[in-house]
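Let's practice the habit of predicting before peeking. Look at the sequence and jot down your guess about where helices and strands might fall. Then scroll down.
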Amino acid sequence: MIKVLITDDSPVVRGYLKYILSSDKDIQVIGEARNGKEAVERVQEEKPDVVTMDIHMPQMDGFEATRRIMETNPVPIVICSASWNPEEVDKTFRTMEAGAVAALEKPRGMGHPDSDSSVKTLLRTVKAMADVKVVRRWSKKKREQHPPRPVSPSPQPARQVSRTVVPAVLPSKGIQVVAIGASTGGPMALQTILSGLPADFKVPVLIVQHIAPGFLAGLGSWLTTSTGYQVVVPEDGEAMIPGTAYLAPDDFQLGVRGEHKILLRQDPPENNLRPAVSYLFRSVAEKYGKNSLGVLLTGMGKDGAAELKQIADAGGITIAQDKATSIVHGMPGEAIRLGAATHVESIQNISEKLKTLVN
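Done guessing? Here is the structure:
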């Protein structure tokens, strides 16, 4: 049985989460916490396998609770949030920096058209996170005593991208575009990669990140602020500019069209997903062929694995994240199984690999 601790200040939400989680024969709800302070105490006492964590709570919020849990009794933490104001979304991503492994919206109530899918996502995520191996984070005092060696340059102020449709000037040969797909664990993986890329990176970067509706704009802002690399949510027909990352919007498939421009379509979901990594990789393989570079990062399922092979078969270069540094090795693992990855790299090495291959 997977032992779960529910943390939320609303008794109604706690009751609904308990009802959902208890419906699965492999999950046992071992307790509830009304705030972050109670969560820290109950984790120490009851040793759950997974903790669901709200962000906005009295006495101690989800960010501080996550930080303390990861310093004392590390356990996989899944954020369940329903607040989409910018402050709370920003705190969600800072909570992931503190050690949370996934972020979901709270399941929709019965009768809502998205109820079934949100319930399935919660159950699938909690069960997958139970197998994640988390590590203890150092306390602030220990971090000050043993400062880590820098692994990437300090973030620089992000430049402002002109929202123009004038065709971009990209390299006439070699790699002309990088396409990245990610799911569970992706935000931190993307942060690591983009932190290591220079502002004058020679090609545009296209990204599909599976994430709950409402988090997308906050993800782009957080990545820009925390990495110094410009990340934008594009418009259909927008010219792709080197040194800029384009994040697929909520509920749109992201692809490419002629003259190095963004393609956004509400075509049917693929692998039950929109945006889907599969759509992006297939579009890039068709338009850029041997001049494309695909990267498949941590995530549940198989989205993008077969299409990464399409990039490789077209003569492009492909990278899959290794198992050791993936939160969930589903997507990159399937790509490796299919022989789709020309390179298998740790997340710490991917940005250097991109710079070498593009140059």
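How did you do? The chain has twelve helices and 14 strands.
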